[in-house]
Prior knowledge:
The chain has one domain (5-204): Rossmann fold. Helix content is 46%, strand content 8%. It has ten helices and five strands. The protein has a five-stranded parallel β-sheet with strand order 2-3-1-4-5, with helices on both faces.
Amino acid sequence: MTLKVIGAGYGRTGTLSLKLALEQLGFGPCYHMMEVFKNPEAPAWWVEAADGKPDWEKIFDGYSSTVDWPSATFYRELADAYPDAKIILTERDPESWFKSTQATIFPNEMPPDDEQPFNQMYRKVIARLFENRMREHDHVIDVFNRHNQTVRDVIPASRLLVYEVAQGWEPLCNFLGVPVPDTPMPKVNSTEEFQARRAQMANERPAN
């Protein structure tokens, strides 16, 4: 199996909804940060990728598409590795995106700089993009906007869809060359849903 769709959009731009949509359209399974949480070996694989030693075949074994972090950090490398894959840049209003990140994925304190693979992955694959300045409004939004513009600049227009999940099925299906489903577009992972899931995971974590 090879990647057919690569998501270049940062987390909290509708990536989980896009994951479910791609799977419904036949481009699944779709890799997402949720897959990292499911596989204890995965964070170390992404640390290797951040250190310049990626094994894409190992990481994406069994997957047809990928969205969200950690893969969004490597969209250029993945676009080269899978030249027939189409690229989707999910976008969102920068202010609402920033507000969402502060309430969900960007912590008040950075994970400790230790040997835990997930902490290393977060620092090298996500926090490094923002120079570890995850709570600074103007800086974070500037990184977000520059990333989105760079994707537009480096990916050929014929291969790229700039997309907001609120646009629904039609532009996505037209880009991928598949019929439009007669069911509603998935819309999941609101800030409230994210926080509830995180609390549930914390409650389920075994005590030390």
